[in-house]
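Final report, section 2: Outcomes. Of the targets proposed, Transcription attenuation protein MtrB is the one most frequently requested by collaborating groups, and we therefore present its record in full.
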Amino acid sequence: MDKHTITNDYVIIKALDDGVNVIGLTRGQDTRFHHSEKLDKGEVMIAQFTDHTSAIKVRGKSQIISAYGEVFSDSK
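The predicted structure is given below as tokens.
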């Protein structure tokens, strides 16, 4: 796999409280916010890493599941 190969991995984010923020960050020389969603308790978002999205930031109490395992984020 070369440095330009993108695996298009998916991440599942389940909000455990109201008001969980999911923020997509751009790929490239300058990392910037490009998309934001707010989830309420019980809502699930399936996000994908793409040519444009290099990172996903999650703020708030949630369960995050990926091919690499499961983690829980804390509340603010």
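Residues 61 and 75 are 4 Å apart (CA to CA).
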